[in-house]
User: What shape does this take?
Amino acid sequence: MFSRLTRPQALAVCAAPVVALLATAVFAPLPFSVAQPGGTADVLGEYRGAQVITVSGAPVRETSGRLLMTTIVATSPDTRVALPDVVDSWFDTDRAVMPRDAVYPSGDDVEEIEHYNRKQMEESQDEATEAALNHLDREDEGIEVDLELADVGGPSAGLLLSLGIVDKLDGDGSGGDLTGGRVVAGTGTIDADGTVGPVGGVPLKTQAARRDGATVFLVPETECAQAQAELPEGLRLVPVTTLGGAIDALVALEKGTGKVPSC
Assistant: This one.
């Protein structure tokens, strides 16, 4: 025998599973990471007590100014990120929600991801050295470059490392510094042929750069729009596609001659 439910009772019965589903959705882990501006490191100086760039087999210059590589800090791959975390981050300019796959390789555990990031950094350092020496036509001179960035992982410091090597060996090519005495920051991968690639997390990196005193930020050209979206006041964006182009832009800034690219 069945009894008919009143309308309020029927609505209550129907609403119960909906509420349960909503509660599950709110607190269920999502495939995102929450990131924020990380530290910076002057590739012309020391990072955590160790010289970042050490050159042997050739004389090096005394440099002025700073070349800051920039980083982001993201929640670890095993951290549960739920809907409230995502919503909070949308309204916080110091944090960003990024697909976990864009931050960490998919399907790997924490130890594997750390190994992957270290390997990427090592490969990036090799390419940064090769790109710099190729640019200077000094790849056959027996110059050795040791790069040390402690626990920084990933390939995004490649461009800045190449610029640091060039500045220490050759400066602007006429006795001056690539930085022109400024605090210059940036990000970008580098290939051995000098091609600069995108990295992700650029708006957060511009915040880290300005926080640490940079007035110029070198950004992969394809990420100009992202960088402009939340650009800190007082930071000038310079888009680059190659190591040579980045050097030309810095020399133009230093000497006040020539056209400096802009986003």
Remarks:
- Residues 110-135 form the longest helix (26 residues).
- Residues 1-28 have pLDDT under 50 and may be disordered.
- The two ends are 74 Å apart (CA to CA).
